[in-house]
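cron nightly-structures :: item 1 of 1
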Amino acid sequence: MPVRTSTSIMTSSKARRSDANERTKRQYRRYLKEGKGLDPKTIEHHVRHIIRFEEHIGFQDFRIFDDEIAVKFKNALRAETSNLTGRVLTVATITPILNHLKNFMIWLRSQSGYKSHIRYDDIEYLTLSRKEVRAGGAGLARSKPTMEECRQSFITMPTDSLADLRDRALFAMLMLTGARIDALTTLRIKHVNLDECFIEQCGAEMRTKNSKTFRTHFFPVSDIYLNELKRWYRHLREIEVFGFEDPVFPKKCYWTRGVEFDKGGLTREFYSTGSMLSKTISDTFQRAVGRRYGPYAYRKTLATWATERAETRFEAKIVSLNLGHSRLVTTDECYVHPSEAQRREGIRNLGRKKVE
């Protein structure tokens, strides 16, 4: 087997190495799309992690990969801080980065010109220690807000402008449906049925995961959320005269009034991504309870709340389908994590028969 050294790779030009990497990433995108059937957004999520590694190695050829580089990259992730929280990256953040890079390297090894440079044993070095994984899992129960924290945060939201009312309606919609933020970013007036209390998540017109189409009925959480959503919907239809194709949560309108920016108005345009609406939600929690929770945390909160009230496996399956999951195990393993208080109470009640 030939000896692999970084110096032999370094002799090629930077432009050539960059071209090779770009060509490889294009081929990998095609593989993920045609071979794995992934949607474009998921593909770019995977490739973004690969680019992160590419930046770490200074955009050198992927052939330089070995066990030492794998360890250095892993340590760099451990030391990196989040731009949002200012804290070091969590295990939950690092794990998918390493997993996507491992999948890429395994695929890359099967490509012409890479097998002699990339070894399976080296790829295994892109694995966190069991101790880290166990410690990271211990924080899962704290990764979502309580229902009371949600209610408290919602109540403190301002009502000074149209943009404020939109944000309150967005918060309410998340509490009622647990829908993903990308889906709500592309939600149209016609997709909402307030008479029957559901939204139609249409994969052909919305950014749903894997372009799924399914109906989400409102969870019976609280009337304060339903009433807020109804007020917003009536305002859009009767005051703003929005049509069926217009967004439920439109972009803000920025215009200059003298030297002052007015940020309270709204356009009829959709946001291109869900990042601005996500920040609105996390900012709301930060102001109200002193901790940032994103829209994805709602799904965990709502999934836990609903499955606790499901008395049969059939009802639990209904909850799972309402969240857009094809399998109940997805809801159980990825979303429902009992808190310490719930575990304590459950253990105490083991074997006790309920008295009517």
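cron nightly-structures :: done
Strands lie at 192-193, 198-201, 214-217, 252-257, 260-266.
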